[in-house]
Amino acid sequence: MKTKLFIAVLTLSTSIIINNVFAQVSGSANYMAVNNSTLVSHDSLLEPGNTISTRTANEVDAVLYRKAMYMVSEQFVFDNLSSLKKAFAIADIYFDLDDASIRPDALPVLNNLVILMKENPGINVATTAYSDSRMSKYNEKLAANRAQSAINYLISQGISADRLQIEKYGRPNMGNPCNDDPSCSLAVQQLNRKTEFNIVFNGINLGHVN
Question: Which residue ranges make up each domain of the chain?
Answer without folding.
Answer: 2-79, 89-208
